[in-house]
From TrEMBL:
Organism of this sequence: Salinicoccus halitifaciens
Catalytic activity entry: (sulfur carrier)-H + L-cysteine = (sulfur carrier)-SH + L-alanine
Required co-factors: pyridoxal 5'-phosphate
Catalytic activity, EC: 2.8.1.7
Family: Belongs to the class-V pyridoxal-phosphate-dependent aminotransferase family. NifS/IscS subfamily.
Matching PANTHER family: CYSTEINE DESULFURASE, CYSTEINE DESULFURYLASE FAMILY MEMBER
Protein name per UniProt: Cysteine desulfurase
InterPro entries on file: Aminotrans_V_dom (IPR000192), Cysteine_dSase (IPR016454), PyrdxlP-dep_Trfase (IPR015424), PyrdxlP-dep_Trfase_major (IPR015421), PyrdxlP-dep_Trfase_small (IPR015422)
Annotated GO MF terms: cysteine desulfurase activity
Any Pfam family matching the protein: Aminotran_5
Length: 374
């Protein structure tokens, strides 16, 4: 079988898992003032420092959360709630954790949703035109999770430099595949998730630039400098730190391999004469993701047929009560519901081999021939 859905989640790196388990004896509550607590606190601080260094931040700028969904919620609601009549800007291709949060807030506040064009990118001029004197927050992702499109965040940061609005970047799908440096990116807030980078599920973080105010969404004790209450998940913080460190040291090799696998995949599809189109601009996409339009089949049928042959892939669209919804990202790009219903996201990993690519293509070819072949 071939798993080709690494943008959904990655397996937890066994080496990291073992290292974390080996340190389980340091079990104290970092808030306890006795020796056992202090040992845990020291370890937690060391891991926080590693996490911060990886993205060129300071340890106190890191807020540990239960994942990127929580981090995005905290960034958006924690900023909106501090203002009387805020205006906020986001895009129509964000992950659900950003999009849904803004959709909910738009009942109460003024929110602008920027449109993506067919290349999958946001137009920086649209952003310029949308900025208002009361714009307090702009949320734009670095890499789109469905198409892999790399948004022009460096140019966006330049536009926002002289504006009061905070810049919040969802970098979940970028980390490990390209450089994520909060200063170079001009981010005031940035989110990451453990399980997309070979760490565990249920851990993530929000970077919050020093001096930036944010209202806690989970209240209680004064953990995480009173920005997120709850006893810290010390072992998973260590796992996140180790996953980030490993992803950094192996980034060049891993992303080169992903790129080679993607290229081989597209070349094989062409060679086998399986009709497809790349959604978006393949030259402006992250190494590990490609989204393909197969005009000859609904995604739901293809996914099921591939699943039966042991090829595991996603449409990149939410499943609601057993029905595959058209991808909101593809629909936003092309304004074409049929295209959105006939598109599939393939997401690669350095863990895959060329034989896996050949297997996926051969199964796709068999399905295509069963439908149309002679
Ligand atoms: N943002 C993006 C771009 C994602 O791809 C995901 C993962 O699904 C998330 C946020 C949410 O991350 P988590 O699963 O850690 O809540």
């Amino acid at each position: 079988s071939v798993y080709v859905d690494y943008a959904s989640t990655t397996p937890f790196d066994k080496e990291i898992m073992e290292k974390v388990m080996a340190g389980a004896d340091v079990f104290g509550n970092p808030s306890s003032i006795h020796r056992v607590g202090k040992d845990a606190k020291a370890k937690l601080q060391a891991h926080r420092t590693r996490i911060a260094e990886s993205i060129n931040a300071k340890p106190k700028e890191i807020i540990i959360t239960s994942g990127a969904t929580e981090a995005n919620n905290l960034a958006i609601k924690g900023t909106a709630g501090r203002h009387e009549k805020p205006h906020m800007i986001t895009t129509d291709i964000e992950h659900a954790s950003v999009r849904t949060t803004y959709q909910d807030l738009s009942e109460q506040y003024d929110v602008t949703f920027l449109k993506a064009s067919e290349n999958g990118l946001i137009d920086v001029d649209d952003l310029k035109k949308s900025l208002q004197s009361n714009t307090v927050l702009v949320s734009i992702m670095l890499v789109n999770n469905e198409t892999g499109s790399i948004q022009p965040v460096y140019e966006i940061a330049k536009v926002l430099k002289d504006h009061q609005a905070l810049f919040h970047i969802d970098a979940v799908q970028a980390f490990g595949h390209m450089e994520v440096n909060v200063h170079a990116l001009g981010a005031d807030m940035l989110t990451l998730s453990g399980h997309k980078i070979y760490g565990p599920k249920g851990i993530g973080m929000l970077y919050l630039r020093e001096g930036t105010k944010l209202s806690a969404q989970i209240t209680g004790g004064s953990h995480e400098l009173s920005r997120r209450a709850g006893t810290e998940n010390t072992m998973w913080v260590e796992a996140l730190a180790l996953a980030m460190e490993k992803a950094d040291s192996k980034r060049a090799a891993r992303s080169l391999k992903e790129m080679q696998l993607k290229e081989r995949f597209l070349n094989e599809l062409t060679a086998e004469e399986i009709p497809f189109e790349v959604n978006g601009d393949v030259n402006r996409q992250a190494s590990h993701i490609v989204n393909l339009h197969f005009p000859w089949s609904e995604a739901e049928f293809l996914l099921t047929a591939l699943d039966m042959t042991g090829v595991y892939v996603s449409a990149g669209s939410a499943c609601n009560a057993g029905t595959v919804q058209p991808s909101h990202v593809i629909q936003a790009m092309y304004g074409d519901e049929e295209r959105a219903l006939k598109s599939i996201r393939f997401s690669f990993s350095h863990l895959m081999e060329e034989e896996d690519i050949l297997e996926i293509v051969s199964q796709l070819k068999a399905i295509y021939e069963r439908l149309y072949g002679n």
